[in-house]
């Protein structure tokens, strides 16, 4: 009889072989590899896979998704599971040294101390070399889960010392089915959101749950296809940045509130109970202004990056039209098919290709800490076609 996969894996879309592998390893971890490299393109869910694997390894039920252990890992409050992210250009050597110290400690509540490093490709060679020994010879009860877009994006010394798991780009039908099951949207909307998100699970779910995100997307395309003057480009840049910052601010404030609620629940405190002095510093750290501002900045960049993907999809559609491939590849922005067809008259094939390259330049500038609004203005003014 086939063994039922625990519910913690239910949110992993279109990755059946990987789910079967990792759930099997979690059930029998005696000879488990202690250093893993989870690879996959944007939207494939590599960070979610790493988190689900951490739950499956430390949950007494193998990843039920409902117990205190699973809830704390999901909320980021479990003492034995640490996730390293960065709102900077790269992961710093100080961050790595701090996490190495953590990795040497015995787990407090669960069988494993698990270190998840998102975007390990954003680590310099010098920083990677500091981490290398711990990856090669982890502490007895420590598991490293490194995430990157592909194995080629990390140094060979890391690749050779980890077990590599490669995720696929989820099929649109898989993403649509997931949306129907988890958000309650109908089949038509689910397929639309999956198409507009280009298979990116997180963005598709965002479109299903947050009408503001869809409105922002539609506004970008609507303004882009009619943009002919620099003044319009500047206004659109300001609109994108302002909307991104407002969305990020609201989202982070909501997250902080939920984290505070989870902290209270995990420590047996009610909504109005006073915080013991031994816990107050941890509780206050959740809403520390500097940390909240960093999180808002990082999320603002993520929302702007989503806007850049939307802009790129318009020029991708133009290239499809110029190549006569509508029936084979289809348009992403089907709702604006007439407007994009009209824009394709003003924008030739080479200009469409150049536009995508300009979008990549804007991404690199933002990643390099160029002010977001300035990068957007430079990009959009270069995309005005009379």
Write up what this structure looks like:
- The protein has 386 residues and is α/β, with parallel strands linked by helices.
- The protein folds into three domains: 7-166, 3-Layer(aba) Sandwich (Rossmann fold), CATH 3.40.50.300; 172-209; 230-381, no CATH class.
- The protein is 59% helix and 6% strand.
- It has 17 helices and five strands.
- It has a five-stranded parallel sheet, sandwiched between helices.
- β2, α4 and β3 form a beta-alpha-beta unit.
What labels would you give this structure?
single chain, 386 residues, alpha/beta, Rossmann fold, five-stranded parallel sheet, 17 helices, 59% helix, globular
Produce the secondary structure layout.
Elements lengths: L15 H12 L7 E5 L6 H13 L9 H8 L5 E4 L8 H11 L9 E5 L7 H12 L5 E7 L7 H4 L3 E4 L5 H12 L3 H10 L4 H9 L1 H15 L4 H37 L10 H9 L3 H34 L3 H4 L7 H10 L2 H19 L4 H10 L5
What is the beta-strand fraction?
A: 5-15%
**Could you say which overall geometry the principal axes of the C-alpha atoms support?**
globular
Number of E-state strands:
5
CATH architectural grouping of the largest domain: 3-Layer(aba) Sandwich
> According to CATH, what is the topology of the largest domain?
Rossmann fold
pLDDT < 50 stretches: none
Number of alpha- plus pi-helical segments: 17
Radius of gyration: 22 Å
Q: Report the CATH superfamily of the largest domain.
A: P-loop containing nucleotide triphosphate hydrolases
Mean pLDDT: 89
Element-by-element helix/strand order? HEHHEHEHEHEHHHHHHHHHHH
* Name of the level-1 CATH class of the largest domain: Alpha Beta
Strands across the major sheet, in which order?
2-3-4-1-5
Protein name: DNA polymerase III subunit delta
EC number: 2.7.7.7
GO molecular function: DNA-directed DNA polymerase activity
Keywords: Nucleotidyltransferase, Transferase
